[in-house]
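Record passed on underneath.
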Amino acid sequence: MGTWQLVAVGLVMLLGLFGVLVPGVPGPPVVWSGVLWWALTEKSGLAWWVLMGSTAVLLLNQALKWLLPARRMKEAGIPWQTLYIGGAAGVAGFFLVPVVGAVIGFVGGLYGAERVRLGSHDNAWGSTRTAMRAVGLAVLIELFACLLVVGAWAGAVLAR
């Protein structure tokens, strides 16, 4: 694999890492596709092992990303409808105020849904903070998994 192609694979993986932090961009599939591209071009035993390990890590990431935050939200008594409303508000916010509007809309949607459901500001704000921590945990899990994959790829590239 040539230098320019390695740089392109690295840029795809970097895009995937940024995709983890941007709502609506599928970071792990983009990172995995970069590893797949490299493994299909490299065709070495090490490349196939990195691809298999990356696949396992990213599949485990998908399970943990849904199980751990869901447990925290269930314990706090926050219904899934609140997240759906927050997600819809985040999408609307993204188009109203590009990029940063997604975060503002998501938090505003969560708070609005919980304010209607719970009635008071203090309870709604506490519930919104709990939901944001759960969503933040999911993002951190996804980012850590993608960083592991990119680190394994970089180590394999430097080892050859």
Observations:
- The helical segments are 3-21, 27-42, 45-76, 80-96, 100-118, 121-159.
